[in-house]
UniProtKB/TrEMBL annotation:
<dbReference type="InterPro" id="IPR013123">
    <property type="entry name" value="SpoU_subst-bd"/>
</dbReference>
<dbReference type="InterPro" id="IPR051259">
    <property type="entry name" value="rRNA_Methyltransferase"/>
</dbReference>
<dbReference type="Pfam" id="PF08032">
    <property type="entry name" value="SpoU_sub_bind"/>
</dbReference>
<keyword id="KW-0808">Transferase</keyword>
<feature type="domain" description="RNA 2-O ribose methyltransferase substrate binding">
    <location>
        <begin position="2"/>
        <end position="54"/>
    </location>
</feature>
<dbReference type="GO" id="GO:0005737">
    <property type="term" value="C:cytoplasm"/>
</dbReference>
<dbReference type="InterPro" id="IPR029028">
    <property type="entry name" value="Alpha/beta_knot_MTases"/>
</dbReference>
<dbReference type="InterPro" id="IPR001537">
    <property type="entry name" value="SpoU_MeTrfase"/>
</dbReference>
<dbReference type="GO" id="GO:0032259">
    <property type="term" value="P:methylation"/>
</dbReference>
<dbReference type="InterPro" id="IPR029026">
    <property type="entry name" value="tRNA_m1G_MTases_N"/>
</dbReference>
<dbReference type="InterPro" id="IPR029064">
    <property type="entry name" value="Ribosomal_eL30-like_sf"/>
</dbReference>
<dbReference type="Pfam" id="PF00588">
    <property type="entry name" value="SpoU_methylase"/>
</dbReference>
<comment type="similarity">
    <text>Belongs to the class IV-like SAM-binding methyltransferase superfamily. RNA methyltransferase TrmH family.</text>
</comment>
<protein>
    <submittedName>
        <fullName>RNA methyltransferase</fullName>
    </submittedName>
</protein>
<dbReference type="GO" id="GO:0003723">
    <property type="term" value="F:RNA binding"/>
</dbReference>
<dbReference type="GO" id="GO:0006396">
    <property type="term" value="P:RNA processing"/>
</dbReference>
<feature type="domain" description="tRNA/rRNA methyltransferase SpoU type">
    <location>
        <begin position="69"/>
        <end position="209"/>
    </location>
</feature>
């Protein structure tokens, strides 16, 4: 954190946070409620705005040998979905989340809020080259499983006890054919009712948690 701006009301309500910032050598500046409205992206701002360093790390630091579960998002456009998947990966004990291709910036305000603090709990990396992301996972000893609604392999029939990297695609278009070809296996979630599909965040939660629970059994 580089600097903290607080309204008078927020400084009173969160005195412990303001004191902790000052103790860490962070500059604390007062601001008006009107300024808070202008700086915040929310309808009802809390009156605290911080200027912070970016959180993402290099690919080689995020995906390392020994990892058992990694999540890769390819061309995911919706920040709410991306943030929710980061939160799911964190809850399931994943070692890293890779945002590849044209995936949304994890520092997007909506993405940060959807992640609910999980951005601070596990390594996040951004890489434009999707092939490099998949290669890094393979080099780290992870099998790459692509979530694909038309795959032959079904989730409940796949061995998920090995170290795994789950690869998820764009909300509307899924994963490109060349990315599917580069993964070790395409896997689909069986649908037992009449719904045509699951949204990205729900599908990710099912796949990632299935792997996490299989590994722990």
């Amino acid at each position: 954190m580089h600097e903290l701006f607080v309204t008078e009301r927020a400084a009173e309500q969160h005195a412990d946070l303001v004191d902790a910032a000052r103790a860490a050598g962070v500059g604390v500046s007062p601001m008006t409620d009107r300024a808070a409205d202008g700086l915040s992206e929310t309808v009802t701002p809390q009156g605290i705005v911080a200027v912070c360093a970016l959180l993402d790390r290099p690919l080689e630091e995020a995906v390392t040998p020994g990892a058992r579960l990694v999540v890769v998002l390819v061309d995911v456009a919706d920040p709410g979905n991306a943030g929710t998947v980061i939160r799911v990966a964190d809850a399931a004990g994943a070692e890293a989340v890779v945002l590849a291709g044209d995936t949304v910036d994890p520092h997007n305000g909506k993405c940060v809020r959807a992640a609910a603090g999980s951005l601070f709990h596990l390594p996040i990396t951004r890489v434009r080259d999707v092939s490099a992301a998949l290669s890094a996972c393979s080099t780290a000893g992870l099998r790459t499983f692509a979530a694909h609604g038309y795959a032959d392999a079904e989730l409940d029939r796949v061995d998920l006890t090995e170290p795994t990297a789950w690869v998820f695609g764009n909300e509307a278009h899924g994963l490109p054919a060349d990315v599917l070809e580069r993964t070790d296996l395409a896997v689909r979630i069986p649908l037992y009712g009449k719904a045509e599909s699951l949204n990205l965040a729900t599908a990710a939660a099912v796949c990632v948690y299935t792997s996490a629970m299989a590994a722990r059994r």
